[in-house]
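Hey, can you fold this one?
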Amino acid sequence: MTADEKNRMQKKWDTEIKSLDSWSMFKVMGELVNGFDHYAKLGPCVAIFGSARTKENNPYYINAEETACQLVKKGYGIITGGGPGIMEAGNRGAQRGGGLSAGCNIVLEFEQAANKYIDTDKLVTFDYFFTRKTMFMRYAQGFIVFPGGFGTFDELFEAITLIQTKKIAKFPIILFGSKYWNGLFEWVKECVLEQEHNISEKDLEIYNIVDTPEEAVKIIEDFYRNYEHKPNF
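Sure. Predicted structure:
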């Protein structure tokens, strides 16, 4: 390839990328505006995260539903990723308890359809994971994280990082299921903290591990006896 051909190819590439980036920017702005419009008046909500693959008869599904039901009876709304599994359980529990049930759904190739337990006026569907996570980070007054896969880990560790670096206000992060989470966070303590010194001991206080809905609800209730409900950033 000659130098002229390389230059022509580079110019064509630059033009196409700039055009795509410009249109992507407007799409991102549209998703953010739509999300803010829908969720700004929700009031205090707790986000429930976990696997979309968890079945209805799984103990984690049952506990997620019960946790959500107890929380709405304390005056909190529930906001989830809008899909099946643990997300459905959270919305189902909110509806059973007579409370607010919101969902931030995401467009995926093979999944996921929004679950039927979301209030129709509180469902927003996103194309981008990062705009969807922005809604959780801004409006959730607490995270309750049930067992899940890479998407759940992504949401969990982003929240921990933002609190650690003081980019958002501190709020309760609760990991449900000691059998599932203990191994991971023992590794965090032993390897990340004690062996490599990549975090501080105080960072271990950002999260709590529980095994019952009552424990999860109590942590959130105790926290907000001392702090005002308000958006996190």
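The CA atoms of residues 164 and 203 lie 6 Å apart. Let me know if you want another pass with a different chain boundary.
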